[in-house]
User: Which sequence fits this backbone?
């Protein structure tokens, strides 16, 4: 699970049928200083995250199965909207 | 499996219901398999009560899911051990935050 920042939403008029109704967000992975690492990932969101939100992203087929269901063709899921984190 | 140091904690309100009441810690990898992680941190579920600055073992994949709440926990990383002591066969002070090579006498000839 990694920390990321939502940098935008993604829409596709033509998409796989299994993606009907799914909300897709672009998430930039962050390093510990809160700076983007350059890596970006598109993740399914069920936590009502929006652009600018700090989020926790889980990646993996089982993580997807257990959150948004096994039929969505994605492996990245937003698991939580992060209120705060502390690095010392 | 990864050896790392707990460097922080993550707090969330809006989250997947299965993560309710769970503690999440930020772990900076100390020894990892080269670039396998490719990141300077990992967020892991912690049920062992790891403290700030403590060395921990983090496991990935299905094993931590089984360990913590059966199969319904949507996590892929968890603290699975608190490290008491690490013995490293090197004098290089810079090695601990990089790739650890097998000691010469253990390398296959």
Assistant:
């Amino acid at each position: 699970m990694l920390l990321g920042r939502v940098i935008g939403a993604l829409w596709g008029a033509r998409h796989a049928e299994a993606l009907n109704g799914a909300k897709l967000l672009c998430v930039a992975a962050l390093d510990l200083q809160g700076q983007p690492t350059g890596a970006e990932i598109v993740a399914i969101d069920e936590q009502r995250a929006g652009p600018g939100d700090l989020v926790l992203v889980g990646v993996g087929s089982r993580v997807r199965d257990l959150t948004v269901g096994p039929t969505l063709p994605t492996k990245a899921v937003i698991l939580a909207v992060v209120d705060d984190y502390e690095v010392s | 499996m990864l050896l790392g140091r707990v460097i922080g904690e993550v707090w969330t309100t809006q989250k997947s219901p299965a993560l309710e009441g769970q503690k999440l810690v930020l772990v900076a990898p100390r020894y990892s398999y080269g670039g396998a992680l490719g990141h300077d941190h990992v967020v892991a579920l912690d049920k062992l009560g790891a403290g700030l600055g403590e060395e921990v073992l983090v496991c990935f994949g299905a094993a931590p899911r089984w360990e913590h709440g059966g199969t319904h926990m949507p996590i892929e990383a968890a603290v699975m051990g608190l490290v008491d002591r690490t013995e490293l066969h090197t004098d290089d002070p810079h090695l601990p935050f990089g790739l650890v090579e097998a000691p010469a006498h253990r390398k296959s000839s």
In short: Chain B touches chain A through 34 residues (CB under 8 Å).
